[in-house]
Amino acid sequence: MTNYEIIKTCEDIDFNQVSEILKFYGLSDYDSSVQEKVFHNSYGVVFLKQEGKIIGVGRAISDGICQAQICNVAVRDEYRGNGLGKVIINELLTQVKGCTVVLYTHPKHHGLYEHWGFSRLKTAYVLFQNEEHYREEGFI
Ligand SMILES: CC(C)(COP(=O)(O)OP(=O)(O)OC[C@H]1O[C@@H](n2cnc3c(N)ncnc32)[C@H](O)[C@@H]1OP(=O)(O)O)[C@@H](O)C(=O)NCCC(=O)NCCS
């Protein structure tokens, strides 16, 4: 699939669509105005857009030098399995080149990130907001 744009800024992005995609997967519940701040405050962002429709998103928080975290990677349901997730990850990795990159994901996606070259971290610790939810979902 090649007929889409890769956008690396928050300008002219319809955050209603971003919010809709992230809510659909339960990745983030924020409405569009909060989601706009979340992405705007991130070090790196990627939006895949096809004819005005946002079809994939992702972002990285980082110091831009040595440490980064990738978050909120999602591809619209009907576009999954076309290599777009990999495009988003690769674009974010380029934006934080030189950094150690961490991410956490739902337990069902471990295989996917290993497929993309990530290794399981044996020594990570986390303080989750809403810890109960993450415990129930098998993150901790
Ligand atoms: C995760 C997600 C972003 C992947 O996007 P996608 O566009 O469907 O993924 P791609 O088509 O780029 O890549 C899928 C690749 O991973 C492989 N794969 C998928 N699930 C896998 C698994 N559990 N274990 C190993 N490999 C897996 C596929 O075989 C495919 O391999 P290939 O590139 O060699 O053909 C997408 O499925 C999504 O939006 N999921 C819901 C939101 C979500 O859970 N996001 C992750 C939050 S961190």
Label this structure with key terms.
140 residues; alpha+beta; Aminopeptidase; 5 helices; 23% strand; binds coenzyme A
CATH superfamily: Gcn5-related N-acetyltransferase (GNAT)
- Helical region count? 5
Average per-residue pLDDT, rounded, comes to 95
Bound molecules: coenzyme A
Which consecutive residue ranges, at least 5 long each, have pLDDT under 50?
Answer: none
- End-to-end C-alpha gap: 36 Å
User: In angstroms, what is the radius of gyration?
Assistant: 15 Å
The tally of beta strands, per DSSP, is 5
Number of domains: 1
**Name of the level-1 CATH class:** Alpha Beta
Which oligomerization state do the chains in this entry correspond to?
Answer: single chain
Major sheet strand order: 1-2-3-4-5
- CATH topology type: Aminopeptidase
Q: Please give the largest β-sheet.
A: 5 strands, mixed
Helical amount:
25-40%
What is the CATH architecture term? Answer: 3-Layer(aba) Sandwich
SS strand fraction: 15-25%
Shape: globular
Describe the structure.
It is a single chain. The protein has about 140 residues and is α+β, with helices and mostly antiparallel strands. It has a single domain, classed as Gcn5-related N-acetyltransferase (GNAT) (Aminopeptidase). It is built from 5 helices and 5 strands; from the N terminus they run βααβββαβαα. A 5-stranded mixed sheet has the order 1-2-3-4-5, sandwiched between helices. Helix 3 links the parallel strand 4 and strand 5. Helix 1 crosses helix 2. The chain is globular, with a radius of gyration of 15 Å. It starts with a strand and ends with a helix. Bound molecules: coenzyme A. The site of coenzyme A (COA) has 18 residues, from strand 4, helix 3 and helix 4.
